Structures are given as structure tokens and as C-alpha cells.
Amino acid sequence: MSRLSDHVDWQYLFREYWHLYRFTSAGGNPVIRSHLKDVRNRLNAELESNPVMELDQPVELPVCAWLGRALDQGLSERTAPVVRALMRVSGQLTWRYGYERMHKSLARKYAYTELMGPGGPAISGKVILGLVLFGPRCTYPEHSHDGISESYICLSGSVSDGNYSVFAPGALFFNPPEKAHRMTTGDFEPTLLAYAWLGTEEKLANQKMSFSTRKR
């Protein structure tokens, strides 16, 4: 059984995540400020506990053809420190869909990978950290999360949350539990997002992902 202390590149990656959630602005919003602090506190507690590491077999999905471009673009942004750390572990990532049913067009433009959480690689019941990769011209359908508060920080590219806001590298957007949200990406560049989920251990361990069936 290996621990985080046995994986130097992963240690630095999680330290960069901590700094990302320390220096990203809450925009004066007390709810978002509290969320950022909670992510940092939970992550810090996990780092101090030196969690078990369970690395799965690396898996690439079609959208991973855009990963190199997304990382290259991120190196020129203020998010470069975490992007550089990600590059050191990119060959160890297990990319997934997270849905039992996946539309063929979305399957070529979307995937996520978990970095810390109940399923590993860094085992935690307190917080889930990961990445979402979107290809250009991707529409990620409306969905919500039961009992989970969620934040995304844009690392490269750009993404709109609904039809009213566009988020560039360094920007954060926050979704409280049960809030329906929908994302779209730009025409020419991929988008890479870091995310954090907070909730009870039961909710984090048993979250089922599904798209909304509500007609728009």
C-alpha cells in the first residue's frame, strides 16, 4: 500500500490545488468565500493525514486528443503553476464519463478525471477534487448534484455557465446543491477546468450523475 508521500509529483499537484483555492477571488461573495475556505481546510487535513494512493490503469477517451493543447494554453495563464504540476502526472490519469448513458457527440467532447475522493487516486471521504476537459463547441447539458456544493476554476480556454456569463482562466464559478447548470465552450479552443465537490461523506461516496430531463 502506497501513501501520498511516496508520490512526489502528486504531492506538489495537491499543494498547487491548495494555492489555487487560496488565491482565487471570491468576488466579495461570503458564500463563495466560505466554500473556498472549506475546500482548503478539508484538503489540508487530507494532506496532513498522508492519504492512501490507489492509482488505476491510465485511461484516455476521445477528448484527450485536446489535452496537450489545453495544457499548453494554460502555461501562459495565471493558472500556470497548477497546469505545470498537472503535466507531471498527466500520463497517470484515468479519464471517465461518469454517466451510464452518454450521447455519441458528447462522448467525443467531454471527460473528467478524479484526483482525490472516495474512488482515489488519493483516497478521501471529505472532499472530491478533479478535472473536466471539454473540446471546442461542446454543450454540456443541464444537470445538478444532490447534496453537493461544487466549484469550477477555469485553467485554460473559456466556458459559459448558462447563457449569461463567460469564464476565462483564473475565474471561478460556484453551484450550490441542487442548482441546475449547463455549460458551453468556445469555437476553437478546448477548456480545462479544476473542480471541487463538498458534501457529507455519504453524498460524496454515492453521488449519481444524470442529466436533467426538463424540457427547455
Account of the protein in words:
- Helix 1 runs antiparallel to helix 2 (30-49) and helix 1 (8-23) packs antiparallel against helix 4.
- This protein has a six-stranded mixed beta sheet. The protein has a four-stranded antiparallel beta sheet with strand order 6-11-8-9, with no helix packed on it. It has a two-stranded antiparallel ribbon with strand order 1-2.
- Strand 8 (159-161) and strand 9 form a beta hairpin.
- It starts with a strand and ends in an 11-residue tail after the last helix.
- The model has no long low-confidence stretch (mean pLDDT 91).
- It contains six helices and twelve strands.
- It has 216 residues and is an alpha+beta fold.
- The relative contact order is 0.18.
- The protein has a single domain, classed as Jelly Rolls, CATH 2.60.120.
- This is Dimethlysulfonioproprionate lyase DddL.
- InterPro entries: DMSP_lyase, RmlC-like_jellyroll, RmlC_Cupin_sf.
- GO terms for molecular function: dimethylpropiothetin dethiomethylase activity.
